[in-house]
Each structure stands twice: as C-alpha cells, then as structure tokens.
C-alpha cells in the first residue's frame, strides 16, 4: 500500500520554492501568491489527513516506502500516527500564517520566500519521516535557510542579527553533532544485533538494546534534542535568536522547529531506547524545572517584547520536558498537546509583535501604552496569545498544562508542585506586559499606526481559531494524540524510572 | 596481453602529446580551440574508462592492476580534470602569459594519477607519483609574472622532492625486509621488526605529505594560495585522491593489521588533522587559503575511513573522494569566477556576490555546506559512511571529534556565505560567468545535490570497487 498524500504535502512548498526561483525578482506579487498557494495546499492536505486518519484502525497510516540506499538500510519512508498528525497540522498552520505575516517584505522577496518554503518542507519532513536517516536529513536541512533568513532579513536591537544568526546555528549544529553520533551508534549496534542494516524507526523500536548502550545513546539524544528544545542550560540561543530573526522565522522557529526536539525525544528516544529514557528521565525533569522557573524569572525583568516571548517559550518548554520525563500515558499526551498549543500561541504572539514592530520600529514595552485604542484587532491577537500563554481555561494551552501536571504529579511530586508555580509567574509577566502595551490612556504618538487589515488578518484568524477550537473542544486533539501515545506507552511497558541515584 | 585494458592510459598519453604539439604549431587564434579539444578528449576517455570499469586483470605479472578499484579512481580523476579545465579557460586568458602547455601538463598530471591508482608495484607507483608531481611543479608556477605563484612553485618543488625522497626511502626499507616491491607479495614476506616499522612510517609520511595530513601539511596553504586557482583546485582534489587510492591499496594489501596496528596511527593523524585544519581555517580572511585549510580538514575526514578499516570505512573513502570532487571543485569554480571578475580572492571580493550573481553565490554556498556535511547534500552521506565505519571499529572518540569539528567548520563556511549575502560592495554590476565555467558550476551543483539525495548508485559503484579487498 502506498499513498502519495504525504509526499505531496511534504514537497508542495519545495515545488513552490522552485517556481519562485525561476521567476524574475521584480514579480513580487506573484512570488507572494505562489508562496501562499503552495503553503495552502500543504495546510489543506494536512487538515484532510487529520480527518481521514482512521481512528479505529490506529497505528501508522498513509504509509509510503521507497527503498533508498540499500547498504545503509535506508528507505524513503513517510507515515503518520496520532503523534505526528498534530505536529504536521501545526507546521502547516504556522507555515501558511508565516507567509502572510511576511506580506510586507519588499526587499529580496524572491530569496525570502524560496528560503521560507524550503524551511517549511524541512520542518514537515521530520514529522513525516519514519526512517531515522530521512528524519535526520530533514532535521538539519532547516538550519541553513534559517541562518540566511536571519542575516538577510533580521533586525539588530540588543544583539546584531549576524551574532544572533550564528549563535542559533552553532548551538543547534553542535547539538546535532552529538545527536548524529548517537544515531550512527544506534545504526551500527542494530546492524550488529540484527545482522542486516535498517533505519526504520519502528523496526529499531523492536530491538532490545543493552541497557548501558541505551543510556549512552539516550543521553546524547537528550543533549541534542534538548538543545533544540532549549532545555536549560542549553537555551541561550533561543531568546537572542528569536529577537534577531525576522517575524516569519521567529514564528516557525518558536512554533514548530523547537518542537522537533520534543517530538524526537518521544518518537526516537522513548520508542527506541525506553530503558535509557527511564534512566535519564529524572535528570531531564530537574533541568526542566530550571526552564520553568528560571526562564520565568528572567521574563519578569525583560523590556523587549521579543525577549519576553523568547524566554517565555523557554519556560513553557519546561512543561513539555516534565511531561516527557514522567513517562506515562497522561503526561506524554499532555506534552504533545502542550507542544501544539505552545506552537500556535507563540506563532501568534510573534506575528503580532512583528506587525507592531514593523509599524512602530520599537519593541520596547515602555514605549507603548493604550494601543487597544488605535489597534483593536492587534490587541485582540495579543490578548488571545497572552491568555493562552498563561494557561487560561478555554484555550488549548490550559488543556496541555493541566494534563501534564496530572500525569507528572504521580511521578515527581515535589518537582511538579514547584513547576506549577511557574504558572503564577507566567500570569504575572504576561498580564503586566499586556497591560503596559495595550491598555491605559491613549498615547497620541501612536495615532498613526494602522490596525491589522487584509493579509495581516490571516495569522490572527488561523492561529486564533486553532487556539480556541483546541481549547473549547479538546477531545478533537486528545483522541488523536491518545491513539499515538497509547501505542508508544504499550511499547514502554512498566518501566522503573530512575536508577541513577 | 589485451592492450585494450591500457587504453585509458595510452589515450591520455596521446592526448597530452597532441596538445603539446598543438600548443606549438597552432596560430594564436587557433589556441582557443585547445580548451574544448581537451574537454572532448577527456570526455571520450571518460566513456572509455566507464566501459572498462568492471575489468579485472593483473598486467605485467602484477605490476599493474586494472580493477574496479582503480577504475573508480580513474573515473574520478577524469571527472575532476574535465571540471577543472572547464573552469580554467577564462582564468588563463586573464592571468596567464601563455596557455600553450597548460592543457598538456594538466593531462600529464592526470595520467600520473591514473598510473598511481592502478600501480600494483611500488616503483610503478612512484613513477606515477613523480609524473603527477612534476607536472604540478610547473603548473603551480605557471603565472610567470606573479611572485606568489613563483614562490609557490619553488616551495612545492623543494618540499615535494623531500617528501618523494622520504617515500622512496620507506619503500627501500620495506623492500629490504620483504624482498619485493610488488604490493600483493609484500604481505607474505612481512615480519615485524624495527626496520619494517620505520619503512611503513616513512611511506605513511610520504603519502601524508601528498594528502596534507597534519603535521605534514605546512606546504599546502602557501602553495594553494599562490598557485593559479584551477591548479589549486586540481591539486586539492586530484592529487589528493590519487594519493588516497595508493594509500588504501598499499596499506590494506601489503601491511597486515594483526602484525602492526597502523589504523590506530591513522586514527590519531586523522583526529589531529581534522582539529588543526578546521581551527586554523576559522581565522582565514582569504577564501583560497580558507579552502586550503578546509581541504586539509577534508583529508582528515577521508583518512577516518581507512583508519576504520572496514567495509563502511573504505567505501566511505571512495564515496567521499568522489563527492569531494563535485563539492570542492564547485567552490573553487565559484572562486575562479570571482577572481576573474575582481582580481582577488580576499573575502571582501565576495561581498554582495548574491546580488551580482545569485547563481554563483548559491552554488558556492551549497558546495561549501556539502563540505561541512550538512544534509541533504552529498557531504553528509559521505560522513555518514566514514563515521559509521569508525564507530563500527570502536573509534567512537574519533566520531565525536570529527562530527563536532565538522559543525565548527560551518562557522567559517558561513562567513563566506555571509559576505556573499549581506556584504556590501561598491561595484554592483552583474557578474556573468562564461559558458564553460557555468557548465562546470552546474555539474558540481547537480553532483553535490544528487549524491546527497540519492546516494544509492554511487554507493553501489563503490561497493564493486572495494570487492578486491574483501
């Protein structure tokens, strides 16, 4: 059985990028339209996949497998299950919105949109690949377009964009070097056990690797994926990187790219190396607390809007890490919902900040005040994102946080209680920021700012709708994720967490 | 004896002689024909080499081997030669006093490489090596009015002669113990004793000089920077690959690992080379010199495969050597375009290239990222083979060093990308590369991307080539 749906979804943006490269640089309108059309195709198809996924049958669906490199056991294999479908949808919601959030780009349009489309395909590929080699191929594809986008279109405020771009790139690449050592070791070891080479994630998951090996490789992965997920103390790239990056890159980076780290930990780490995961999990949980509390404290003292959201995203990733580290059905469900929720929320936040920055040329909280007078729609976007960020019930983020805490409490009692305190700090800095920027007396110097209109509304509508639908009808998301995680947890069996101390 | 087996060598020798004569007798205008003529000739020989790929014969009682391993490298040299000559035309017109002997010398260097890949005996190997190196001495100093080029030629001559002497001394010591210079017979007479170890180490040092492994790399940056850029390109790709071919054949067949653990020696050399090459490259401000250090580091990666001493490792050596042709020559061809246009290879000369010629900038970026091992480009697959081999042989530490340093190397490659994409240049006129160099650039791009996305065919080809060692 072979299905082309996923391949089409995956390569539509690349096709768009190729078309754009063939156009002359001055056809700006056409270039933007092409980018919009091809990301829309991917989005529409991933919504279709969401609904067409057979929930009774479960497991991996829409599978496509083409043998690729025989002597490395590589198959070009795509497939989705309950864990990857939400991530796929998330990627394309944000990808489509990011194109519209960049509608005002008018210099080097051709370069911008072709790199952006390649970036979207790269991110999507990691969620669709069921082959380790193909996964890694896509995993690193994303790094270079991001670097070029940051240095060409980024902004220099507290740090220069060159510095931000390079910091981002080097951090992620060094993390991926460790990851790659782990992956190659995994491949070599599985060859030794099986007697033939394979890179199929699901086949590798059936092998019972020796415990010492599992711990070693999982530790490498925790470092590699952890860096991408901005796990404390490897998070330093994240706020600087987001601040330097152009809006669309911040959206994609904070929205989905980071989530590849969490997804990889679950899909590759937990599934292939459950023993190693159980051993290393307590360390991850403790570091996660560093994310939640430490980053939240830093947020309290930030003045730049992008830095606030940047550090808050580091803080939120702590919840995801705790969910993963608790290693049970409920907590991992929560971690995946949280990744989805934080993705749409952060993307919306960055879209709004980007829009405001383009018009006002500042991101300093103290410069603003009473913007709800001049820009009611933008204010609505800020409010939705902000309230989602602090976990207000009715928003999808609440579902994620709540589920994580329930799942994790049974495993790490003290840590979870401490982590819940993060919610309070989040409320504190988010509400303070929203109040300072949006409310209060009207400031006449901002009277010239125009509210969102036309293409600028797209990110607000698409991402806002995702936040609210997910929050009001969480079962749409829950059922699907539960299916995928159910299979995974069955694989995990009853593992004893810890063993290190 | 079937002479047709030697048709590649014979045809190359003939082509070289014909070009030499043509350079003398053709009128000034007719010499423009020499570039297309060389390319066509090499293409024909490439096809010939392709048909002979699977042949396997011992010629002259084992002194000369025609086998897929040699066949693989012959194809590699010919592809590299064609690409370099395609990118050389305009450069020569602009910088060289005379072009008469250039193509002929290139072809003779190529012939030397081919002999090295096929040599089944040490003296034959040495003759091939000298044919190649002596041609390169002249080519390095080819820009008659350029002091740097003359200096580079002289340096290369002195140091190259020294390293040849070391290699020859090593061969003589090994001969003293084993009583033979035929590679396949050496293992039989192998006894482990100090003279033998000294011989092996001297041979290794001789080859290490040719492939510029640290600490035998000192010559490379100066000579790479001083030589005409097409010569540098050919030196860094062809001469290295030829030395690798010889190194692999000699060490695997002649020196049994159980008697003397030379792979460990190579592993240490590889680690030192990767670290030093990459770290020094970080500080370079001249792209030619930067590429020189990067090519030192690349030699370190390739040596990892031989140090791993298993199927993935050796296949990695072959795979990487081939992709290195496309990626490295792509970067050099782009640098050639810039030097022809601006007269310089300093990093400032690359400022704003993405606006002046988007294609050249994109190809340069992609080729350099392939060298850094970023997927989905060819370099990544190559490194995957090499380090799979290394980990399989228990060289986990080497894999850590290699992969982390290759991420460090991204830094200096991106410095060039940065200059091209956001650097500002007073001169914003569009750069139009010539047709020939354009073709070379596109071939390099296609090779780099194709081998990265679909490595299957090349990996099969390499599999056939390494059968002789199994």
Describe the model:
The complex is a heterodimer of chains A (501) and B (470). Chain A has 501 residues and is mainly α. Chain A is 73% helix and 3% strand. Chain A contains 20 helices and 2 strands. Chain A has a two-stranded antiparallel ribbon. In chain A, helix 6 (143-153) packs antiparallel against helix 7 and helix 12 packs antiparallel against helix 13 (305-326). Chain A is globular and about 70 Å long. By secondary structure, chain B is mostly helical. Chain B has a domain at 261-470. Chain B contains 19 helices and 2 strands. Chain B has helices at 7-25, 34-51, 68-95, 102-118, 122-140, 147-178, 183-186, 194-210, 219-226, 229-254, 262-281, 287-308, 311-342, 353-356, 358-372, 378-392, 396-422, 435-453, 456-465, and strands at 57-59, 64-66. Chain B has a two-stranded antiparallel ribbon. In chain B, a hairpin with a 4-residue loop joins strand 1 and strand 2 (64-66). In chain B, helix 16 (378-392) runs antiparallel to helix 17 (396-422). The radius of gyration of chain B is 21 Å and the shape is globular. The two termini of chain B are 26 Å apart. The mean pLDDT of chain B is 91. The interface between A and B is large, with 35 and 37 residues.
Poorly predicted ranges of chain B (pLDDT <50, ≥5 residues)?
none
Q: Provide the succession of SSEs of chain B.
A: HHEEHHHHHHHHHHHHHHHHH
Note the beta-strand portion of chain A.
under 5%
Q: Give the topology string of chain A: H per helix, E per strand.
A: HHEEHHHHHHHHHHHHHHHHHH
What class do helices, strands and sheet pairing of chain A give?
mainly alpha
Helix content of chain B: over 70%
The low-confidence parts of chain A are none
**How would you write the strand order of the largest sheet of chain A?**
1-2
Number of strands of chain A: 2
Mean pLDDT of chain B: 91
Structural class of chain B: mainly alpha
Average of pLDDT of chain A: 89
Number of helices of chain A: 20
Report helical residue fraction of chain A.
Answer: over 70%
The termini of chain A sit apart by: 48 Å
Shape label of chain B: globular
Anisotropy-based shape of chain A: globular
Q: Which chains share the greatest interface? A: A-B, 35 and 37 residues
Count of individual beta strands of chain B: 2
What characterizes the major β-sheet of chain A?
2 strands, antiparallel
Gyration radius of chain A, rounded: 21 Å
């Amino acid at each position: 059985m072979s299905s082309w749906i996923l391949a089409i979804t995956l390569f539509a943006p690349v096709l768009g990028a190729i078309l754009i490269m063939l156009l002359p640089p001055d056809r700006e309108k056409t270039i933007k339209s092409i980018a919009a059309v091809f990301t829309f195709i991917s989005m529409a198809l991933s919504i279709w996949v969401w609904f067409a996924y057979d929930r009774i049958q479960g497991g991996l669906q829409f599978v496509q497998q083409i043998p690729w490199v025989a002597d490395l056991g590589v198959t070009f294999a795509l497939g989705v299950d309950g864990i990857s479908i939400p991530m796929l949808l998330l990627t394309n919601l944000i990808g489509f919105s990011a194109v519209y959030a960049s509608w005002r780009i008018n210099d080097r349009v051709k370069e911008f949109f072709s790199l952006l489309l390649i970036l979207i395909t790269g991110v999507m590929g990691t969620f669709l690949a069921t082959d380790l080699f193909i996964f890694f191929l896509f995993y690193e594809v994303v790094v270079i377009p991001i670097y070029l986008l940051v240095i060409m279109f980024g902004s220099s405020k507290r740090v220069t964009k060159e510095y931000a771009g390079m910091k981002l790139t080097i951090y992620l690449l060094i993390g991926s070097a460790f990851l790659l050592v782990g992956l190659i070791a995994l491949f070599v070891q599985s060859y030794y056990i099986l007697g033939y080479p394979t890179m199929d994630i699901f086949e590798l998951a059936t092998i019972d690797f020796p415990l010492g090996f599992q711990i070693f490789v999982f530790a490498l992965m925790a470092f590699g994926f952890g860096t991408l997920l901005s796990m404390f103390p490897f998070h330093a790239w994240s706020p600087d990187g987001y601040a330097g990056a152009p809006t669309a890159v911040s959206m994609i980076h904070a929205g989905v790219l980071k989530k590849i780290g969490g997804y990889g930990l679950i899909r590759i780490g937990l599934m292939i190396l459950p023993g190693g995961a159980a051993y290393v999990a307590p360390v991850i949980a403790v570091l996660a607390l560093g994310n939640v509390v430490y980053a939240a404290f830093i947020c309290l003292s930030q003045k730049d809007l992008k830095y606030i959201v940047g550090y808050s995203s580091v803080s939120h990733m702590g919840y995801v890490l705790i969910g993963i580290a608790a290693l049970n059905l409920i907590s991992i469900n929560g971690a995946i919902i949280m990744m989805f929720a934080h993705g749409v929320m952060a993307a919306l936040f960055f879209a709004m900040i980007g829009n405001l920055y383009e018009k006002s040329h500042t991101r300093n909280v103290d410069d603003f005040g009473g913007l709800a007078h001049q820009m009611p729609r933008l204010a609505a976007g800020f409010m939705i994102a902000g309230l989602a960020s602090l976990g207000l019930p009715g928003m999808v983020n609440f579902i994620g946080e709540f589920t994580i805490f329930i799942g994790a409490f049974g495993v790490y009692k003290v840590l979870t209680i401490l982590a819940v305190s993060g919610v309070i700090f989040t409320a504190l800095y988010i509400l303070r920021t929203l109040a300072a920027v949006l409310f209060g007396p009207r400031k006449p110097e901002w009277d010239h700012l125009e509210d969102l209109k036309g293409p600028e509304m797209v990110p607000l509508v698409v991402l806002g709708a995702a936040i609210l639908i997910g929050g009001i009808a969480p079962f749409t998301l829950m059922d699907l994720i539960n299916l995928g995680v159910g299979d995974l947890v069955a694989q995990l069996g009853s593992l004893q967490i810890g063993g290190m101390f | 004896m079937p002479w047709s087996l030697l048709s590649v060598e014979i045809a190359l020798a003939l082509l070289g002689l014909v070009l030499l004569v043509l350079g003398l007798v053709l009128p000034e205008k007719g010499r423009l024909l020499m570039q297309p003529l060389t390319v066509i000739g090499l293409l024909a020989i490439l096809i010939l080499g392709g048909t002979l790929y699977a042949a396997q014969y011992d010629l002259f009682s084992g002194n000369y081997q025609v086998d897929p391993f040699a066949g693989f490298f012959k194809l590699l040299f010919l592809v590299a030669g064609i690409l370099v000559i395609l990118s050389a035309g305009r450069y020569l017109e602009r910088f060289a006093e005379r072009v008469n002997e250039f193509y002929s010398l290139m072809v003779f260097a190529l012939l030397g490489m081919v002999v090295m890949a096929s040599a089944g005996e040490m003296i034959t190997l040495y003759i091939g090596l000298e044919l190649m190196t002596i041609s390169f001495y002249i080519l390095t100093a080819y820009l008659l009015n350029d002091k740097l080029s003359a200096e580079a030629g002289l340096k290369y001559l002195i140091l190259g002669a020294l390293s040849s002497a070391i290699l020859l001394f090593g061969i003589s010591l090994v001969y003293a113990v084993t009583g033979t210079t035929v590679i396949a017979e050496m293992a039989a007479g192998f006894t482990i004793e100090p003279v033998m170890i000294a011989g092996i180490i001297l041979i290794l040092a001789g080859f290490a000089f040719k492939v510029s492994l640290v600490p035998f790399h000192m010559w490379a940056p100066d000579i790479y920077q001083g030589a005409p850029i097409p010569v540098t390109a050919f030196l860094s790709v062809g001469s290295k690959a030829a030395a690798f071919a010889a190194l692999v054949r000699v060490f695997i067949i002649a020196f049994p690992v159980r008697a003397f653990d030379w792979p460990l020696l190579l592993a240490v050399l590889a680690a030192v080379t990767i670290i030093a090459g990459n770290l020094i490259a970080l500080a370079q401000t001249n792209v030619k010199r930067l590429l020189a250090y990067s090519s030192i580091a690349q030699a370190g990666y390739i040596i990892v495969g031989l140090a791993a001493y298993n199927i993935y490792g050796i296949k990695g050596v072959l795979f990487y050597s081939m992709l290195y042709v496309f990626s490295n020559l792509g970067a050099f061809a782009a640098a050639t375009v810039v030097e022809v246009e601006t007269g310089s290879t300093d990093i400032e000369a690359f400022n704003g290239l993405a606006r002046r010629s988007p294609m050249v900038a994109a190809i340069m970026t992609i080729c350099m990222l392939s060298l850094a091992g970023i997927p989905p480009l060819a370099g990544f697959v190559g490194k995957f083979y090499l380090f799979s081999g290394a980990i399989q042989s228990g060289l986990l530490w080497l894999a850590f060093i290699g992969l982390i340093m290759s991420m460090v190397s991204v830094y200096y490659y991106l410095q060039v990308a940065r200059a091209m994409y956001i650097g500002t240049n007073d001169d914003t006129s569009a750069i139009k590369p010539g047709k020939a160099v354009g073709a070379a650039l596109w071939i390099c791009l296609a090779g780099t991307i194709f081998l990265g996305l679909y490595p299957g065919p090349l990996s099969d080809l390499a599999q056939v080539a390494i059968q002789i060692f199994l």
